[in-house]
Amino acid sequence: MAYSSNLLSMNDSVANHPSVARVRQRLSELHLTGEVRILADSARSAREAATALDVEVGQICSSLIFVSAGAPVLILTSGRHRVDTELVAREQGLAPLERADAELVKSATGFAIGGVAPIGHAHPITTYIDRALAEYPIIWAAAGHPHAVFPTTFDELLQITGAEAIAVAVE
User: Fold this and answer.
1) Max CA-CA distance within the chain?
2) How high is the pLDDT of residue 2?
3) pLDDT tens-place string over residues 121-170
4) Which fold, 2-166?
5) Where are the domains of the chain?
């Protein structure tokens, strides 16, 4: 009984978290029908999220923040890929890309690492999306917390983020 009570408390805590509320609000403003889902297990990594949702790891949309010439860059990538930063920088004409630290991720997006959503950021961010995500009818993205996700589609993500579709890795 204590386990159920603790799980309910955790679910309520995540569901009412300000970052999750911000994503829900943005989804509503955009008239999207995907509902935020609270997971019992962490979805901090693509593998964890795929396991929790019982989907392919490629269906997980990881929101990764990089820095190029001092500016944040968001890359929405399929969970099956590691972003080839040299490829992306070269193909997009960017200065070298480096992983952003936790402080920059939080200040640029308003989210902590592990829960960065593709929408609802604190500031506009140049955004790219992995073409590989188009292979899946449903994609799952973080919803502001490591235990919160929402379903979407590639076309929907393109529309709501203004992202440019690119190859993020060589297959």
Assistant:
1) 56
2) 40
3) 988 999 999 999 999 999 999 999 989 999 999 999 999 999 999 999 98
4) YbaK protein (3.90.960)
5) 2-166
